[in-house]
Amino acid sequence: MELAELKTQYKLPNHICFIIDGNGRWAKQHHLPRSQGHIKGANKLSKIYKMVREIGIKYVSIYAFSTDNWNRPKEEVDGLMKLFKRAVKEFYDKKKYSDCRIEFLGDLSKFDADIKQSAFDIMEKTKDNTAFHINLCLNYGGREDIVQAVNKLIASGKTQVTMEDISVNLYTHNCPDPDFIVRTSGEHRLSNFMPWQSTYAELYFPKVLWPDFSKKDLIEAIREYSSRDRRFGAIKE
C-alpha cells in the first residue's frame, strides 16, 4: 500500500507523536556502541517527517531528549548534543522544510549557546508556515511543562486558573493535543511525555526498535489508530 492511499482508506490522527525508544538496544543487537544507535535513530527522523506528511497528517512531535536524559553517561550525552546540532543545521539547509513550521519544545536553557540561538532563529523564521508542523522535544518533561505554565500564570497575577489557562501556556500551545502516541521498542509507558495533553490520546506500543521503524510499521500504526473507537467519555448509541 502506498502512503497516500491511507488518506482515503483510514481515519487519520491530526497530531501524531513518537517516543523514539530503542536506539541503545539496536546498537547492542548489532554489536555497536550506543552512539551508533543514536546516529541510526537520528537518520530515521527526516524519513519519518516525509512519510507522515505524505500520509496527510498535519502535526508530528518527536520526543528526542527528556529532562531525565541528562543522567546518562557524559559520553552519550555529548554524542547526542552533536546530533542535535546536526538536526538543527538540517532544518536550516533543507529546502524540503521551507513551508514547515518547526518548534523546539522544552527548556532550551541548558543547551550550548549555538544550539539555543539556532533553535530560536528557526522558530522565528518558520512561525508563519502552515503546511506542516514539526515539534522536536528537547530537554522536555511533561511535569516540568505544567510547572512552567503555572509559574507564567502566577507571574501574570493569576490567583485562579482554568484548564484553558494552563493549556495556552504549555510548550505545545501552537498545536492541538496529540491524537496518537507511538512508543517504539515495546515499553508500555509515556515517561513524562505530555501528561496534560495526552489525556485522550490513543497509545500504541510496537516492539520494533526506533532505528528499524519502517514504512510498513507506520502503515500498521495508522491501521491500528483507525480501528480505535474514540468516545472522549461519551457513549455512542
Describe this structure in words.
The chain is globular. It has a single domain, classed as Decaprenyl diphosphate synthase-like (Undecaprenyl pyrophosphate synthetase, 3-Layer(aba) Sandwich). Helix 2 (23-29) packs across helix 3 (34-55) and helix 4 (74-93) runs parallel beside helix 5. It has a six-stranded parallel sheet, with helices on both faces. With 237 residues, the protein is an alpha/beta fold. It has helices at residues 6-9, 23-29, 34-55, 74-93, 113-126, 142-155, 163-167, 215-227, and strands at 15-19, 59-66, 100-105, 132-140, 180-183, 202-204. The two termini are 33 Å apart.
Number of DSSP-assigned strands: 6
Could you give me the name of the CATH homologous superfamily?
A: Decaprenyl diphosphate synthase-like
Any idea what the radius of gyration is?
A: 18 Å
Residue share in helices?
Answer: 40-55%
Unreliably modeled segments = none
For this structure, the CATH topology is: Undecaprenyl pyrophosphate synthetase
Q: H/E series, N to C?
A: HEHHEHEHEHHEEH
For the biggest sheet, the summary is: 6 strands, parallel
- The overall average pLDDT, rounded, is 94
- From the N-terminal CA to the C-terminal CA, the straight-line distance is 33 Å
Nutshell version of this structure?
The chain is an alpha/beta fold. Helices cover 42% and strands 15% of the residues.
